[in-house]
Design brief:
Elements: H1 2-36, H2 39-42, H3 48-57, H4 59-84, H5 87-93, H6 98-137, H7 143-146, E1 151-156, E2 159-166, E3 172-179, E4 196-207, E5 210-221, E6 227-238, H8 257-265, H9 282-293, H10 298-307, H11 322-340, H12 348-379
Antiparallel strand pairs: 1-2, 2-3, 3-4, 4-5, 5-6
Helix pairs in contact: 1-4, 1-6, 3-6, 4-6, 4-10, 4-11, 6-9, 6-10, 8-9, 10-11, 10-12
Length: 380
């Protein structure tokens, strides 16, 4: 009974350190990324609410990036703390089995690996795709925040704005608009087949999802290369057809794992869903799936490497270096796993080696660890 309480105490301390470190890393990275996302307001004219929702939907992806490193640090810090406070020494004197403690570390690593797989396979693609959908379906843009005095703005695809000045009432003075992609062609019937439109207005302002212009001219270039001028005293331009340069096409990390599996398994059959826009680039699909399924396999391996800190060394003067050596080896392993991800899509052998390597290393290092710990017990 007492031993179970001790095991629960060790596990809870590791989990506390893991959550604290993971939260700290995530908060710092999310703050930096949220600052980069300010372009959505400044350059693309989205509202603050859309910006905030978009930033929140990216948190799960940030969390998954720091899970392996946070787990490694939590193990090293926890074991060092137990050792410094003589808690481990008390446990050894009390006859606690080191192998069981190493198994607890492995069990924690296994649970965190399952969490990482859940994040990578389901939660991250769903949240990131939701964030992209949020931008795609949000039609109302803060165009007034995009347009600046004495500055050409090409934040909208195929459309260039130039504003001479903006007064204190947020009115636009001397407005020049160049439309190259036909976003303005539905305003008046005479321009339905026009290729190029230029608009000049002396004054205007933005009201909800419309741009109200006064005293200006439409100048259009038809397919027959004829220039057609239409003067107006007041007109309204709908902003619904305006699209920003924000990427609307889902990226690989925003694509469902189910779709990616179909891209790989049904590449040469008619069963392939048309949703797979990456079907012609099998390499990046395999790399993405390897990140979601293969990378978590290295987390339990980290727990076994960290368990070597439980092994006693005869040369006590070098004991303080162990935690740095163990951390360095585990950190190099994580970096190597991240680098090798890039090669998983090159061939089936690379793909298989990436998944088999952590399993083979885990079994080998665990077997060696148990042998060393058993020899320590016999020596006593």
């Amino acid at each position: 009974m007492l031993k179970n309480k001790i095991y629960k105490y060790l596990a809870s301390e590791i989990f506390k350190n893991f959550i604290t470190i993971l939260f700290t890393f995530t908060a710092i990275a999310w703050t930096v990324r949220a600052v980069n996302f300010l372009d959505l307001i400044i350059d693309d004219g989205y509202s603050a609410i859309v910006y905030f929702k978009y930033s929140l939907l990216n948190i799960s992806n940030i969390i998954s990036r720091f899970v392996p490193l946070s787990f490694l640090l939590s193990l090293i810090i926890s074991i060092t703390k137990f050792e410094r406070q003589k808690e481990l020494l008390i446990l050894w004197v009390a006859g606690l089995n080191k192998i069981k403690i190493a198994n607890i570390f492995f069990l924690i690593g296994f649970c965190i690996a399952l969490l990482q797989i859940l994040l990578g396979l389901i939660i991250n693609p769903f949240a990131l795709n939701k964030s992209r959908t949020l931008l795609r379906e949000t039609s109302s843009k803060q165009i007034s925040s995009i347009l600046k005095s004495n500055d050409f703005s090409d934040n909208f695809q195929g459309i260039t704005f130039y504003i001479d000045e903006k007064n204190s009432n947020n009115e636009l003075i001397n407005i020049f608009i160049k439309d190259n992609n036909g976003s303005l062609k539905t305003i008046i019937s005479e321009t339905n087949k026009d290729q190029d439109t230029t608009i000049y207005a002396k004054k205007g302002y933005v009201l909800k999802n419309k741009l109200i212009l006064f005293n200006g001219t439409f100048q259009t270039l038809t397919k027959g290369n004829k220039i057609k001028n239409i003067n107006f005293e007041k007109t309204e331009l709908s902003l619904a057809n305006f699209s920003t340069r924000t990427i609307m096409q889902p990226k690989i990390q925003e694509t469902s794992s189910f779709v990616l599996f179909k891209c790989v398994l049904f590449k040469n059959t008619n069963k392939l869903s048309q949703d797979c826009i990456f079907r012609d680039n099998r390499k990046i699909v395999i790399e993405a799936l390897s990140r979601r399924l293969g990378m978590p396999l290295y987390i339990p391996l980290i727990s076994i490497i960290a368990s070597y800190l439980l092994v006693l060394k005869k040369e006590k003067k070098y004991n303080y270096l162990r935690k740095y050596i163990i951390f360095f080896l585990a950190f190099v392993l994580l970096v190597s796993a991240e680098i090798l991800l890039k090669f998983t899509g090159f061939s089936s052998i690379n793909f298989a080696l990436y998944f088999l390597s952590p399993i083979i290393l885990l079994v080998s290092l665990y077997f060696l660890l148990t042998r060393i710990m058993m020899s320590e017990k016999i020596a006593k």
